[in-house]
Design brief:
With about 325 residues, this protein is an alpha/beta fold. It folds into 2 domains: about 230 residues, Spore Coat Polysaccharide Biosynthesis Protein SpsA, Chain A (Alpha-Beta Complex); about 70 residues. The chain has 11 helices and 8 strands. An 8-stranded mixed β-sheet has the order 7-5-6-4-1-2-3-8, sandwiched between helices. α2 links the parallel β2 and β3. It binds uridine-5'-diphosphate and magnesium ion (MG).
């Protein structure tokens, strides 16, 4: 069998050399046929030069694709999966937070017939606040979404050829891969590993992007939030009706009193806020529809030594029509 390792890289010049060395050492020990698929996600540092050098040194076992700009990790993983030719594909970060030693275990589980072998990390070494927020988030989100999302489960996993083909066949523009992995299903097994720290360089996550990612997770996989909007509207209308009846009743019994306007202001502002949230929610869905209808490619390739085609919109449309 042949194993492909897909590595999205964005500004990883500091660690990519060490990563390459370490992974080749592990793969060499396992004596499997392998290829490394590096995807340079429009890095602004020397990452591409490093990858080029690695490809020159290691000829047939190194493929790379370089994007015309930063398209994000989701796009980079997709490009890597498309490029990978192996019977099994492992997705790994370039920063050595995903320990290469675990590959052996993944292969063992793959050989037992599993299509997805997932490595779940512990939250050791994370900031306590961040891991608490994550825990709460996953608890909440799993009530909402149709697919199962698990805390600590990221992109580090082995996929069989069947699973890879399934993933690549999903054409959507807004890719939330935690959801997609779960959506495709197949025979899945999970094991735990100790979290490792980045070996160099810096994380690309900021607090804001984490929040946005969280919102993506909530609405990428269903329209249930819209249903919640309907329920919230109905219950508020019900409450308002009950309150009106009560006021009328009180006026009939005790005559008209003129209670404070504070209640009024609070209700108006509260409802205004709620309406804004609901509008934003609907806007999110419409925005997604807008992006999907444009049918833009997920990424543009600037340079490659593999098979990824340069993207021409016409070629893409022709390909779609043929499907
Ligand atoms: N990455 C990427 N494109 C991006 C951001 C990140 O390809 O726009 C890659 C990055 O090079 C790394 C992996 O995705 O290999 C994970 O990124 P990072 O380590 O910053 O995330 P964290 O481990 O902190 O969640
Ligand atoms: Mg990392």
């Amino acid at each position: 069998m042949k194993l492909s390792v897909v590595v999205p890289c964005y500004n990883e010049e500091e660690v990519i050399g060490r990563f390459d060395e370490k992974i080749r050492e592990v793969l060499g020990r396992l004596a499997v046929e392998y290829e490394l698929c590096y995807v340079d996600d429009g890095s602004a540092d020397g990452t591409l030069q490093r990858i080029r050098t690695l490809a020159q040194q290691n000829g047939s076992t190194t493929r790379y694709v370089s994007f015309s700009r930063n398209f994000g990790k989701e796009a980079a993983m997709l490009a890597g999966l498309k490029e990978a030719g192996g019977d099994a594909v492992i997705l790994m970060d370039a920063d050595l937070q995903h320990p290469p030693e675990l590959i052996e275990k993944m292969l063992d589980l793959y050989q037992l017939g599993h299509d997805q072998v997932i490595a779940r990390r512990s939250r050791e070494g994370d900031k306590p606040l961040r891991s608490m927020v994550s825990k709460l988030y996953y608890r909440a989100v799993n009530k909402w979404v149709d697919v199962e999302l698990t805390d600590g489960v990221g992109d580090f996993r082995l996929l069989s050829r069947t699973a890879v083909d399934a993933l690549v066949s999903l054409p959507e523009y807004n890719r939330f891969s935690k959801g997609l992995f779960s959506w495709i299903g197949f025979d899945t097994v999970t094991f735990d590993y100790r979290n490792a720290q980045r070996e160099g360089g810096a994380t690309k996550w900021r607090f804001g992007s984490l929040v946005n990612y969280g919102i993506d997770g909530m609405i990428s996989f269903n329209s249930r939030p819209l249903r919640v909007a309907i329920y919230a509207g109905l219950s508020l209308a019900g409450l308002a009706a009950a309150y009106a009846l009560w006021i009328i009743g009180a006026a009939v019994v005790g005559g008209v009193t003129a209670p404070g306007y504070v209640t009024l202001v609070a209700i108006i502002v509260g409802l205004g806020g709620l309406q804004m949230v609901m509008l934003g929610l609907i806007g999110e869905y419409i925005g997604r529809i807008y992006y999907e209808t444009k049918r833009r490619p997920h990424f543009l390739v600037k340079e490659t030594n593999g098979t990824a085609p340069a993207h021409h919109p016409e070629a893409r449309l022709a390909g779609r029509a043929g499907r």
